[in-house]
Amino acid sequence: MKNVWEQNFAVSAISREPVVSKTTHTGENDRLEYAVSSMQGYRVNMEDAHATIGDLDVSTATSFFGVYDGHGGPAVSMFCARHLHVEVRNHPGFKDNLPTAVASAFVRMDQMMITEEGLRELSRYGCPSRKLTVKDKLMSCACLKVKKHTGPIDVGSTACVALIRGDQIIVGNAGDCRCVLSRNGQAIILTTDHKPSVPAEKQRIENAGRSVTVTGGASRIDNGIAVSRSIGDMRYKTNSRLTPAQQALTSSPEIRLEKITDDTEFLVMACDGVWDVVLNQGLIEIIRGNMKSGKDLGKICEAILDMCVEPPQPSVDNMTILLVRFKHNAQAPARSKAKEQSGNDDDLQGKRKGKAAAAPHRRSF
Questions:
Q1: Where is the PPM-type phosphatase domain (predicted)?
Q2: 359: in domain
């Protein structure tokens, strides 16, 4: 009987040796400092993408950060990394109703990807590496020009974004990336992992005429996708009688606003490849300890990714981590009018999840 680790390697999407080279980017302005790092890990290709725009809009002093965890191929995550923040900026409510602008931008991604222009762009980002028929590859990558535009059938991406404006953090999330805030050393979770097993998500799925099943130890929609919200994945968004928010798999994000206070230290966003093996509070303590020792934010992110692929319980997914540190000695701009809606390296090993909770797993879509 193979253990979980060996079973993962038996799947063609997993390699026996991780790709540990990283793409790291850092930046700052007068209000915050940020870093992002991504690593392919044990996957045979890289499907994550991200966006960091320290000055999305100078007049409102708005910053944008996004992590996009693709599946079925990199096309949708790359599309989101290029366009989602632009759609937020272009929304009529950008200056006065930022939460609405964020929510609209998520849904706009699906709308844009089913246009001829969107289909052409998706096709440039490449097809999935898994073994499919030529027809399936074309459909999955949205490369096939059809009379009725269907978009990316089996290619999608979860998305988590955070916008900083004045003394507010506006977080939008669809899927199982996660955003956690450190306030005086305590982890404040700002997102929900959208899984089909979550009662409210399950109810929406069943109301849309689909079912929630358990396959391979994970709850799925119709034995397929293992998240309940994502961008793309048009196979699960075919009920013409329902709005985008009512579809079994919806791109509508959950929005949360959080105030930046004097004890708000930093926020961290990461895909599930990181959260699979690290506890929320544990990761906050790792980052906080390294910040106090003066370590560069980019190096902190890279060290965390290296830790996540270490035996005996490594992550077998792509990994991206994004870190934003707040500068409290800077003068904060006037508060936004956005409507409030709710919502040291030696210590790394001690902050990992316990063995039972950290058993490596690969999301299958």
A1: 33-326
A2: no
C-beta atoms surrounding 223 within 10 Å: 12
* Total number of domains in the chain: 1
Q: pLDDT (tens digit, 9 = 90+) per residue, 74-117?
A: 999 999 999 999 999 999 999 999 999 999 999 999 999 999 99
Assessment of whether the complete model's pTM goes beyond 0.90: no
Residues 6+ apart with CB under 8 A from 324: 32, 33, 34, 63, 65, 162, 164, 266, 267, 268, 269
Task: Please give the sequence-ordered ranges of beta strands (E in DSSP) within the chain, or none if there are none.
Answer: 14-28, 32-43, 48-57, 62-71, 156-165, 168-174, 178-183, 186-189, 212-215, 218-221, 231-232, 254-259, 264-270, 319-326
The residues facing 213 across adjacent strands are 220
What's the CATH number where 79 sits? 3.60.40.10
Q: CA–CA separation, 265 vs 189, rounded Å?
A: 14
Residue 362 lies in a domain: no
Largest CA distance in the chain: 61
**Is residue 192 one of the residues assigned to a domain?**
yes
Residue 364, domain member (yes or no): no
Tokens standing for residue 130: 């898994």
